[in-house]
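Predict structure. Chain length: 355.
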Amino acid sequence: MTSKEIMGWLEEVIHPAKEGKSIVELGMVNGIAIEEGKVVVTLGFPKRRDPLTEYLVGATRATIIRHVPQGTEVEVKTVVKEEAPHKSTGLDLGVEELNNVRHIIGVASGKGGVGKSTVAVNLAVALARLGYKVGLADADIYGPSVPLMTGTEGVLPEAIEEEGGKEIIMPVEKYGVKWMSIGYFAKPEQALIWRGPMACNALKQMILQVRWGILDFLLIDMPPGTGDIHISLVNEIPMEGAIVVTTPQPVALADVEKAVNMFQNPQINRKIYGLVENMAWFTPEELPNNKYYIFGKNGGEEMAKKYDIPLLGQIPLVQNIREGGDSGEPAALSSRPDGLAFLDLAHKLAQEAEK
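Prediction complete.
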């Protein structure tokens, strides 16, 4: 393994905002050090506040890991090649861009596979249909699905530099909602091999450097679980509360219960606006009045009673919701029963938020 070989590998790392050029072509590879069992690559950036810094660091590390022998330690460092004195350091991000957002609400779950992102996207669209100004930040950075579910894959958000060297990312707008996702900066098939601190820094950039403007609701589609990303979110972002998504089955409820306890923990202490029971029953398209409780019945309702939190909605499992997510046309755009279920959910959340 030589520095020349590593440079060849790094030609695979494309800067999304530079017309398909690699970090090698752009002269961003500032140094390569090869030690016994370890590779250290240093990337040079002309600005500290580059909104794609964390993405490029993660992509570089992931590319090298694919090629080096298993067990090799890979480290990617960054340096600033041109630094103007008036420009601030990379991650000293304030919450100025959130000053005009009335409600910042997380959409959480204790486990994957319960349809959390489906609920988040459709809830955002439903709130917009009710006349609210809405944004959604896709914080599920290991599995970003917002670009696919909104039909915005391949869109690269515009980055603008303002006076004083501050760089701002403009969100993607569609269906009356402002969207932001790390998925806009990564290839759909690319795995983001990030350690916790790197993931948290990328997440902060993705929320705090975005020009959200005036919003009634900013929804944050959180990753499943109760880990360091969740702690970073509640500590760094003025998130006032969350809704928790579950399915009726006991195995899901057991994990979702942990998410409820996390938000109610005194060290976190965020309001839970309510519980959403997704896939509450299955209704075949040809038998719209039939309900089949294939994942169990009323599990979400019983948990809501246990923790004295509202049951905001029960979303049926219907084919249209899945098809809408895959085609980029959320079910909440329709006036079918599934679309009306999300409108009802949005109405109840808005009521809870105004209490």
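Summary: The radius of gyration is 22 Å.
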